[in-house]
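pasting for the record
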Amino acid sequence: QVQFVESGGGLVQPGGSLRLSCTSSRTFFRFPGMGWYRRAPGKQREMVATIRNGGSTNYADSVKGRFTISRDNAKNTVSLQMNSLKPEDTAVYYCNAAPVTPNWGQGTQVIVSS
């Protein structure tokens, strides 16, 4: 059963930056793509960014121009660089395949607050 492990979350002030990382028990290339997702308090989980094996990316409108998804195939990691963070980015962030698998990790908490 595949496992995803996220790290890099924390407390940051509005306008600040964070870099999230994800690794998996299964080589990422076994999936069509990888993605970052988030669940804000009181809201459903939503897609933040995805990256396909060919390198093409897709972003939620709310994060375009601020977030960048990338992958390191040699290290089997997927990262999410988050800049110009806003309070509305506060959420638990998860990585998973794209399309998603049923196996969600613990996620990593991001809190944007002054």
